Amino acid sequence: GMGRDVVETVPKYMLDTSRGTEGFSEKKRHIYLAGGYEIHGITYDQGAMSFEAVEVPYLYMDEEAPMPVYSAALYHCTRMRIIETPYKGVTWTYDMLLLRSLDEDSSIEVYHATQYDSPYLTREWINERRSNVKRWEMKARLYGIHSDQAGRPYYEEYMQQLRSWSTSIVNKATYGRFEP
Fold it and tell me: Which has more confidence, 170 or 17?
């Protein structure tokens, strides 16, 4: 959630220190800015209903939101920005945002960047960390590309789901005996 660490990134001259504690309300998770502006922090864990509030001019989402949160937020903001690394693979953001942005009459704009595009990261820093990135995460983490997730962790998750499913079927089965 939004805490004091986020407030510390805001230049002091932009804070309205007459409100909250030095421009921040710990309880409400609000940052008060000069000119009467406010920044409200809501987490995805608070659920979709938390986004069913008054309309806001700008909404910034960090990483992919669950679909119910996105749907609720979409109708309560004038402009939305989603900043994500598509490390969850090909999800709803691929279909609903990336592909729809390609339509000529779409109002969705997609800006793509890779780790190598960042002015804050050196090639050496990226390459050092790249050696620790699993091959199934490479496209998403380094190049920001939606891709099918494959490899050991996804196989193990699939097998766990399969075991759970098969156990639930066996436990619900009714046994009978057929005689001529």
Answer: 17
